[in-house]
Specification:
The structure holds 2 protein chains of 2 kinds. Chain A is mainly β. Chain A has no helices and 11 strands. In chain B, 0% of the residues lie in helices and 59% in strands. In chain B, the strands form 2 sheets. In chain B, strands 2, 4, 5, 9, 10 and 11 form a 6-stranded mixed beta sheet that branches. In chain B, a hairpin with a 2-residue loop joins β6 and β7. The chains are: A mainly beta, B mainly beta. The interface between A and B is medium-sized, with 22 and 19 residues.
Chain lengths: 113, 109
């Protein structure tokens, strides 16, 4: 079964609203999780590295005030897209390292109207 | 800088063998990964190479040459369900992965 659970799988929201995406490691503890974004027909782009108990590390060009990351426990990281706009519509995927492998969540398709 | 190149698209016939190449130039190296991704789904792990040579796993094999910055994924006995995007990714220190743009493989009957 899946070792990384991501919810929700699909979100449709109005422009200006905030959306929270959860990523859970199910049977291992993950001090570090990663958040990726993927636009149609493009590859995964790392947005940020989520560190348990400390601030996330954002990649260049990613607005930390827009994409809020919280990693409050060893099994849960959340990504909140604040004041979402249509250009934020994308496929968001989290990943966590366990058992010497990197596992991905099932992804969240965000559509902002 | 980081640069990972792989072909955009490939087409092969059911039952055949196909090789997907990947070349990379990255600031750090902590292994080479291959993932399979079907449209609208998350990537699925296929293989991991950290030492030079060939790793075989059933119908899938992956090769790495660190000195050449080169890897390939070999798929044998192609099946229709193998039609997907194949992502080459380089592991950097700190467990980060840098992905190539992906190769869309189309398997025809």
């Amino acid at each position: 079964g899946a070792v990384v659970s991501q919810h929700p799988s699909r979100v449709i929201c109005k422009s200006g609203t905030s959306v929270k995406i959860e990523c859970r490691s199910l049977d291992f503890q993950a001090t570090t999780m990663f958040w990726y974004r993927q636009f149609p027909k493009q590859s995964l782009m790392l947005m940020a590295t989520s560190n348990e108990g400390s601030k996330a590390t954002y990649e260049q060009g990613v607005e930390k005030d827009k994409f809020l990351i919280n990693h409050a426990s060893l099994t849960l990281s959340t990504l909140t897209v604040t004041s979402a706009h249509p250009e934020d519509s994308s496929f968001y995927i989290c990943s966590a390292r366990g058992y010497e492998k990197l596992f991905f969540g099932s992804g969240t398709q965000l559509s902002v109207l | 800088g980081q640069n990972i190149d792989q072909p955009t698209e490939m087409t092969a016939t059911e039952g055949a063998i196909v090789q997907i190449n990947c070349t990379y130039q990255t600031s750090g190296f902590n292994g080479l990964f291959w993932y399979q991704q079907h449209a609208g789904e998350a990537p699925t792990f296929l293989s991991y190479n950290v030492l030079d040579g060939l790793e075989e796993k059933g119908r899938f094999s992956s090769f790495l040459s660190r000195s050449k910055g080169y890897s390939y994924l070999l798929l044998k006995e192609l099946q229709m369900k193998d039609s997907a995007s194949y992502l080459c990714a380089v592991g950097e220190y700190g467990n980060k992965l840098v992905f190539g743009a992906g190769t869309i493989l189309r398997v025809k009957s």
